[in-house]
Write a structure and sequence with these properties.
The chain is an all-alpha fold.
């Protein structure tokens, strides 16, 4: 019985070793499988990074579009104001008032409005070029402030020219009213 016990013990030991070794062997992988898993992990990480970058780029493009839209609204408002001032100048012309200075200032304002429109187009092109460059963060931050500030300065200059046109028209109107009231006053005090 001793031999049978030894054989049974050997078989039990062999079975237990096989049952222990098989799961471990199943978990081990070859070098190719490890490389494949690493490549897949690296690939998904790269995809995530690219997706994040694309999201940030899209976010920046949306912000730039909102800024450009605000600038466009400002330009449309300036154009509307310019049109109303032009209408007022025409009314003053019909009344025989001298509006040459106001017309010159309005032409200057309209030129500045057109320059603003051109600056908005160059802003959009400059920002898109900065985003698509090899170093978008550096290029974007460097060009953003310069381009946006340039457009804002042009909007302010156009607005200032329109305000100056209105001031000139007011002076023209007041000068004519003062001359009329002075003449009337002089006429009534003379008799």
């Amino acid at each position: 019985m001793n031999k049978i016990t030894k054989n049974i013990s050997a078989v039990v030991l062999a079975v237990s070793m096989i049952s222990f070794v098989l799961p471990v062997m199943a978990q081990t992988t070859t070098t190719e499988e490890t490389t494949s898993v690493t490549a897949v992990t690296a690939s998904t990480t790269t995809v995530r990074v690219v997706n994040k970058l694309e999201e940030k780029i899209q976010m920046v493009k949306n912000i730039v579009m909102k800024i450009a839209t605000r600038f466009d609204v400002n330009v449309r408002n300036l154009e509307s104001l310019s049109s109303r001032i032009s209408s007022r100048i025409n009314k003053f012309d019909q009344q025989g008032k001298d509006t040459t200075e106001a017309k010159a200032k309005l032409n200057e304002a309209n030129t500045k409005i057109q320059e603003t429109k051109d600056a908005i187009i160059s802003l959009q092109a400059g920002i898109n070029a900065a985003i698509s460059s090899t170093t978008p963060k550096k290029t974007f931050t460097a060009s953003k402030d310069k381009l946006v500030k340039g457009v804002m300065d042009k909007i302010k200059a156009a607005h200032k020219a329109l305000v100056e046109t209105v001031v000139i028209l007011a002076k023209t109107n007041n000068a004519l009213e003062n001359a009329t009231s002075t003449t009337t006053t002089t006429t009534t005090t003379t008799p």
